[in-house]
Amino acid sequence: KSILWWSDPMPSKPVSPLGLFAIDDLLSDEERAMRDLVRAYGARELRPHVADWFEAGSLPARDVARGLGALGVLGMHLHGYGCAGTSALSYGLACMELEAVDSGLRSLVSVQGSLAMYAIWHYGSEEQKERWLPRMATGQAIGCFGLTEPDFGSNPAGMRTTAKRENGGWVLNGTKMWITNGSVAEVAVVWAGTEDGIRGFVVPTDTPGFSAPEITRKLSLRASVTSELVLDGVRLPGDALLPGAEGLSGPLGCLDEARFGIVFGALGAARDCLETAIAYARDREVFDRPLAGFQLTQQKLADMALELGKGMLLALHLGRLKDAGRLDPRQISLGKLNSVREALAIARECRTILGANGITLEYPVLRHANNLESVLTYEGTSEIHSLVVGRALTGISAFA
Ligand code: TGC
Ligand code: FAD
Known about the structure:
alpha+beta
């Protein structure tokens, strides 16, 4: 409910950053219920373990996926095939709550629901959908999405992975890099060049010639599995092709879905940092007074709350547009650019408020900041999204 300042009996009682913006007033009962459900699940099942997973650089992805599947968030905005069929906005709110725990958990859900499941749901044959989607919705089968290659990240059009027709089937060769969920996936959606341009393939990961070595020694997204995909003469039947995806618009259409989730998700990480910093500053005494009572601290907090609230208002606007079927991919670029850039700035500023304590895993702040370095890069770097916006504003492409 709105904050009624004039009737507030305790004007000095702190208000949460998003409470200050009366964000809840902009959500329906159903949306708030979904958000609260995911928040409670995260607090109970994920948050107690996440610092350990991050420190160990190892996520029990299968258990986590099954738990999230039972919660109903895997492919939740898709309809049919065992998916929950919620609004896009509810999906965004779920991403926000998961990323408030850790970006790696939101990553798992993004890749599963918005990239791998969405690719099959939107571009797949009826047989592909029935074979994979119900198991993916429950987390019994994990999916990954192979677009990036060692030499082609921002410019996937240059990809070298090929799919050649042979005896009515396909033979795939090439390497994909930085693939979330790769080593734990049962199914990989792989994008490859064919004589008809870029096409997508549904690859069961037990197919001979497929391997997925895990990438280690990461300093970011440590509670997430990241892998290389090696496709060495992988033979697939003719019906492994995603029939509805032709050209780069196929994978980019999936990226639109996942980027939308990040618009909300990154703000979840920022909110967690800011709430942590406010609590810390109220508790911590410096020069015999609470840190929160110093003007410099309050200016930091006010500026961060302002960016968080503005980002949230933009995210909600984009969510409403998406649910109305009117969201343009260029608007998703605006949202991803803003949310991630501001979330990273907020995480770093909050780290200063925590002083030395801020560099430990006892608090979530530097973990979030480190994770957000990946979020800044994947799903289109900030530079790429700036160029998308620049092209929209000027009509001139500056990519190449
Ligand atoms: P361009 O000439 O602009 O377009 C080629 C074709 O694609 C269409 N298109 C889109 N379709 C849907 N959604 C979009 N956002 C689209 N943007 C472009 C376009 O209409 C055209 O279609 P058609 O039918 O005429 O052929 O393409 P370009 O080569 O100039 O590149 C554009 C650029 C640079 C924006 C694009 O390549 C890009 O977005 N690059 C960034 C790559 C990227 O985001 N990779 C992400 C990999 S997946 C990942 O990071 C997962 S992390 C997950 C996690 O853990 O959470
Ligand atoms: P590059 O494309 O080499 O870019 C390097 C720098 O150059 C960046 O700053 C970039 O913005 C800049 N740059 C590039 N082009 C231009 C230009 N035209 N003008 C100005 N600057 C430019 N990919 C998948 O396919 N699936 C996944 O599941 C997946 N998960 C990932 C998980 C993690 C943890 C990470 C870190 C990455 C993941 N990626 C995944 C890969 C990710 O999408 C790419 O890293 C990203 O697209 C950038 O590609 P790159 O790393 O090759 O950087």
